[in-house]
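Q: What changes when nicotinamide-adenine-dinucleotide is included in the input?
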Amino acid sequence: MKKIKVAVIGCGAIANSAHIPAYLESAKAEIKYFCDIIPERADKAVDRYDCGKAVYDYREILDDKELDAVSVCTPNDMHGVISIDFMRHGKDVLCEKPAARILKEALEMQKVSKETGRILSIGVCNRYSNAVNHIKRLIEDGVLGEVHHVHASFRAHRSIPGIGGDFTKKSTAGGGALIDWGVHYLDLIIYCCNEPTPLTASGNAFCKLGKNIKEYAYKSMWSENTADFDGVYDVDDSVTGIVRTKGPVISFIGAWAQNIGVDETYIDFMGDKGGIRLEYGGSFKLYSFSDGMLLETQPDFKSNPIHKDEVIDFVNSVIKGERNRNDIDNAIITSKIMQAIYDSSDANREVEIV
Ligand SMILES: NC(=O)c1ccc[n+]([C@@H]2O[C@H](COP(=O)([O-])OP(=O)(O)OC[C@H]3O[C@@H](n4cnc5c(N)ncnc54)[C@H](O)[C@@H]3O)[C@@H](O)[C@H]2O)c1
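A: The predicted holo structure follows.
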């Protein structure tokens, strides 16, 4: 069988932990290029995985007729630029989440995907989780009745990544806790609730604990290797909001850092016949009632490698020429909600989502 040829753009954490291993395991794909603006990272990938060619500027490979698709694994500010360039050169794209820093960029990506007919999948990987898909089916089967409210908590005591680096600058990341973590929670909710149209949003995004970088107290930091204590910190380290949709109301509280010593990462789906608490990244409990009894069910099922399954599905989509569940048309809903939360926070009032 002929394998599709792919390039991985950005050879950092998510590329090495998710995209590259999945392509290497796939019998249907072959990595032709590893690209990073830090040459050692591209070179190291070629050595480590013993395949492909290192390139340091993605524009060098745009015209390669053999190249079918790319994974965009760069910081958020380059998602739009790189994805659009590859789509305009006839390649399908799997772009990491969030789609872009701001809604305007995400809408441009969606427009180019339509104009060129190229697949644009966004890395909202929870859509591939077995737990999430069981919840989606339980909701579709009416087990929860009408799901009127979904509440998410994505809070940690101290978990600002790479403070002062790419993650904590509006210019590169677009936002903080909401755009980095909230995107996964909101997209998961939107997916389980059948992609409801969002109507209004009210929210507040707070830049409090990280802004005095040198005084930020913490035990450890993921992405610490990108930290720059002389750098910029101007994004939200905590956020809260309420979103009205044509389906359920969604409320959330999120924090990369808070002066409350708990880490809470769950989503509650509340219906009139039943409810579900999903422990994010893990399993869930189903609450219901029957014959005067309150029932609590702890389902048992196989968990799965969601990043790998996402990449494998992307490869199949490219081969079939069909869009998949992570298509920009679905992911754009979360981009709209996040933009509305930031706009509402700036304006200090509820805003409409159009
Ligand atoms: N789906 C998930 O669960 C998940 C998890 C982690 C990160 N991410 C997303 O993946 C993206 C990358 O995050 P990361 O943690 O891997 O960051 P990282 O800093 O570890 O890696 C990013 C890499 O991109 C390279 N790069 C920057 N600009 C480039 C350009 N113009 N061309 C080529 N390479 C370039 C950098 O040199 C770096 O090696 C972010 O958008 C992040 O939000 C998603």
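Observations recorded in class: The chain has two domains: 4-126+307-321, 127-305+335-352.
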